[in-house]
Amino acid sequence: MTYLYRFLIKLILSIVLILRSFSLFTYSLYMQGGGYWVLPLIAVIFVVWTIVEGISLSKSKKWYKSVNDTDERTESHEHRAGYITFWINMIGTALMFVVYSYIDTNTLHPLNFIGIVSILNIIIFIALKTYYIHNN
Fold it and tell me: Which helix (H) or strand (E) holds 70?
């Protein structure tokens, strides 16, 4: 895969994410509750990240070069961090189902809880990956 194809995939994903998140955001303005700003915020951050990557690629003129980001050691660290993050996600989702089945609470909407767990998974994955890379 070249940098151009990866950039185009990220661009298409960011457009779809922006369209979906802001349609959800405008719909949620009519409803009560908070936490619906998380997905548009992630979409804006992803678009800014894609634009910065496009600018850096055009400055370095690496559009048609092959992407070689990882080696075997980095892939093994990513697999290990992904495995730990997967089980944290499973435990968090199971706890969400247990809590919402036994306790009728209006403090946290299930969609917001899934968003929080997803953001925590991303943070945990990145933290574990950098920990394994810098300590091995």
Answer: none
* CA–CA dist 77, 136 (Å, integer): 9
DSSP letter string over 73-90? HHHHHHHHHHHHHHHHHH
Are 4 and 54 spatial neighbours (Cβ–Cβ below 8 Å)? no
What distance separates the 2 farthest-apart alpha carbons in the chain? 57
What is the helix (H) or strand (E) element at residue 61, kind and residue range?
Answer: none
Residues near 6 by beta carbon (within 8 Å), at least 6 away in sequence: 67
Query: What is the reported pLDDT for 116?
Result: 75
| Residue 33: strand, helix, or coil | coil
> What's this model's pTM, rounded to 2 decimal places?
0.50
**Amino acid, res. 63:** W
